[in-house]
Amino acid sequence: MAIATKLSLTLLFLSYSTTIIFAAANDTGFVGKVDPKSLNLNKKRTLSHFRFYWHDILSGTNYTAATIVPALPKYNTTSSFGMVNIIDNPLTVGPNLTSKTVGRAEGFYALTSQSQATLLMVMNFALSEGKYNGSTITIVGRNVAYNEFKEMPVVGGSGVFKFATGYADARTQFFDPETGDATTEYNVYVFHY
Ligand SMILES: *[C@@H]1O[C@H](CO)[C@@H](O)[C@H](O)[C@H]1NC(C)=O
Ligand SMILES: *[C@@H]1O[C@H](CO)[C@@H](O)[C@H](O)[C@H]1NC(C)=O
Ligand SMILES: *[C@@H]1O[C@H](CO)[C@@H](O)[C@H](O)[C@H]1NC(C)=O
Ligand SMILES: *[C@@H]1O[C@H](CO)[C@@H](O)[C@H](O)[C@H]1NC(C)=O
Ligand SMILES: *[C@@H]1O[C@H](CO)[C@@H](O)[C@H](O)[C@H]1NC(C)=O
Fold first, then answer.
1. 106 within some domain
2. Nearest listed ligand to the Cα of residue 22
3. What is the CATH number of the domain that holds 117?
4. Cys-Cys link to 94, which of 99, 114, 127, 140 (CB 3.0-4.6 A)?
5. From CA 131, how far away is CA 87, in angstroms rounded?
6. The predicted structure's pLDDT at residue 110
7. Subunit details for this protein (predicted)?
8. Residues with Cβ < 8 Å from 128, sequence gap 6 or more?
9. With left for phi above 0 and alpha for psi between -120 and 50, is residue 159 left, alpha or beta?
């Protein structure tokens, strides 16, 4: 009996203090509760699979990627540690650059290992096809260049991809060690509303 009373008093106090906290937050206009329905987020999540080819073109006059920070001299030829490339790379539906463009990969990658070619990828896939036009998928992850499969997390997105989660599997399709030009196949698995 005494324990039950104590418990209900505790619960009463907890709900009271919760109310106070929400009210205080609401009073400032800083944060409030939202019904998911009002943001169209009450629908079932869809798991979509996108496949496209990412073209990293460093050579020629119409390059899409460029070094904005050179490698640290000590690591210049081994791991390119410290190098940063900025990218605005076309994403095409087939491996050939002349195939249909379905979006762009905007962002950068940084060489972040002292011992091997490993990249920190930070990029937005800005898609331009159909209902995905204008929506973005954001990738932040580790890419070990010489692994056959490189898995990187989808950390979010915008438009159709609000609240998105998932991952991307990348596989090198073509690489020219002379120029650094590369074509990578991306398979992106993403949960979205
Ligand atoms: C605060 O509460 C009022 C009344 O319930 C509501 O209309 C308003 O949208 C809330 N503010 C925020 C920021 O959630
Ligand atoms: C580079 O792009 C311009 C403009 O789109 C085009 O006219 C030119 O032929 C391209 N050059 C090469 C080498 O592809
Ligand atoms: C790094 O390597 C490139 C190409 O191999 C060379 O052109 C450049 O001078 C080197 N930079 C340094 C700082 O050694
Ligand atoms: C890409 O397509 C163009 C034009 O359709 C063609 O000439 C070229 O051989 C193709 N390249 C490859 C690697 O298949
Ligand atoms: C995507 O949207 C932009 C801006 O609304 C529009 O200009 C463009 O034609 C659209 N692209 C496709 C492929 O529908």
1. yes
2. 1
3. 2.40.480.10
4. 99
5. 24
6. 98
7. Homodimer.
8. 101, 102, 103, 104, 134
9. left
How many structural domains is the chain composed of? Answer: 1
pLDDT value of position 7: 47
Q: How far is the CA of 121 from the centre of ligand 3 (A)?
A: 23
pLDDT tens column, 152-176: 999 999 999 999 999 999 999 999 9
Q: Which pTM does this prediction carry?
A: 0.81
Q: How far is the CA of 62 from the centre of ligand 2 (A)?
A: 6
Which residue type occupies 53?
A: Y
Domain extent, residue 59, equals: 45-192
Q: Is residue 29 part of a domain?
A: no
Question: Is residue 181 in a domain?
Answer: yes
Q: How far is the CA of 76 from the centre of ligand 3 (A)?
A: 6
**For 18-35, what is each residue's pLDDT tens digit?**
445 545 556 778 888 889
